[in-house]
Recover the amino acids of this structure.
């Protein structure tokens, strides 16, 4: 199957670009290269060997701070990408186009209009992959009549809409696709040695914390197995450092949890590590002000952006992943999948599709913008070892599972099934 992929890969690094990169590599990479890269050869899923991909890396921003800003240079670059797509269409005979529709932002939506006006008439199959959330609702409730009409005319009746979860189906349904498929995100296993190096240590640390929560003392053997720092519950927040990603709720939640822990189990305390970049100067100023006001000292540290192997070390060392997001366009957070891959208990929000992937009645789920609930959830999951979440990752979010489901959905767009 020949497929034009009109979507960007990192940088900038965010969930959508990471997933596009995973798809391109998993389906064999851009076939125009004389030889695939080593990473593409290793990443290709055997069941997807029938794909010929032609990738137009439609990157308009070099970093996250530039995303969403309109500049003449971006328009010219976009026109160049459309030209690439059309050359591929006629030189290579590619009739299927893969595209990621915008979140509900006018600048991004108008970008979609330009691409669809110039490219869609020449492709018989349009495949939309919905990574963001909210465009359908925005079109129905906030868009002007003209915006609604133009968007439905240009992006409506796609051959296939791929959504990440049942929650996301409403967005795609507004544009009346001919077919719809639910394909959850996936992730290369960043912790292939989980069973050998992490599972046992997490088990013993969780067991020791449960004893401490009950007011019992630990034996020397329990201390040896759990580690001398077992009294520190290491909480990780890793995301863009914005208010709506839950940054300030995580900070306040840990502060409240420590206050409650001091009365309940004085030998335990939460320590929060914050990883990520600030996108807005005012939020960075609010963060620095919060640090000064709380006198957080030993229980809070900020590391800035961390990537590569250093990021995986932070996941390995953590005991709990805290991500109380209420980001308007949240689809299916990749950072939560990463945390599950490392067998980390999570504290997160009943927001968008997130609850679909967690057990019914899970105590780590909280309402958005409720730091007191974050504190209660941290206390509730402090005795969990996280093996449940490693199982969820393996069953729902493994790379092979993701690529196989995605490949089957893509084939269905052209097969008429």
């Amino acid at each position: 199957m020949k497929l034009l992929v009109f979507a960007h890969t990192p940088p900038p690094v965010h969930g959508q670009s990471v997933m596009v990169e995973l798809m391109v590599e998993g389906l064999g990479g851009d076939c125009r290269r004389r030889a695939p890269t080593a990473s593409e050869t290793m990443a290709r899923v055997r069941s997807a060997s029938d794909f010929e991909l032609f990738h137009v890396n439609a990157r308009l921003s070099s970093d996250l701070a530039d995303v969403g800003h309109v500049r003449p240079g971006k328009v010219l670059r976009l026109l160049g990408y459309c030209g690439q797509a059309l050359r591929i269409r006629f030189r290579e005979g590619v009739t299927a186009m893969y595209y990621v529709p915008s979140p509900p932002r006018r600048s991004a939506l108008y970008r979609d209009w330009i691409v669809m006006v110039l490219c869609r008439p020449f492709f018989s199959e349009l495949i939309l992959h919905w990574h963001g959330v909210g465009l359908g609702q925005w079109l129905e409730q906030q868009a002007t009549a003209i915006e609604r009409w133009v968007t439905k005319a240009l992006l409506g009746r796609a051959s296939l809409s791929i959504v990440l979860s049942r929650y996301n189906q409403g967005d795609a349904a507004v544009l009346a696709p001919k077919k719809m498929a639910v394909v959850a995100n996936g992730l290369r296993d960043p912790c292939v040695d989980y069973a050998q190096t992490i599972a046992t240590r997490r088990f013993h640390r969780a067991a020791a914390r449960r004893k401490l929560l009950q007011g019992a003392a630990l034996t020397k053997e329990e201390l040896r197995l759990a580690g001398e720092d077992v009294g520190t519950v290491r909480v990780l927040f890793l995301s863009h450092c914005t208010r709506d990603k839950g940054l300030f709720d995580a900070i306040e939640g840990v502060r409240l949890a420590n206050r409650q822990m001091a009365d309940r189990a004085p030998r335990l305390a939460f320590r929060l590590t914050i990883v990520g970049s600030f996108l807005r100067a005012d939020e960075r100023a609010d963060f620095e002000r919060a640090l000064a006001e709380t006198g957080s000292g030993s229980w809070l540290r900020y590391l800035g952006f961390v990537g590569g192997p250093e990021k995986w070390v932070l996941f390995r060392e953590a005991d709990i992943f805290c991500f109380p997001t209420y980001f308007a366009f949240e689809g299916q957070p990749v950072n939560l999948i990463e945390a599950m891959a490392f067998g980390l208990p999570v504290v997160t929000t009943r927001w968008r599709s997130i609850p679909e992937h967690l057990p019914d009645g899970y105590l780590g789920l909280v309402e958005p913008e409720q730091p007191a609930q974050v504190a209660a959830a941290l206390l509730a999951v402090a005795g969990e070892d996280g093996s449940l979440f490693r199982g969820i990752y393996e069953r729902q979010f493994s790379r092979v599972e993701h690529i196989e489901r995605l490949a089957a959905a893509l084939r269905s767009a052209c097969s008429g099934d």
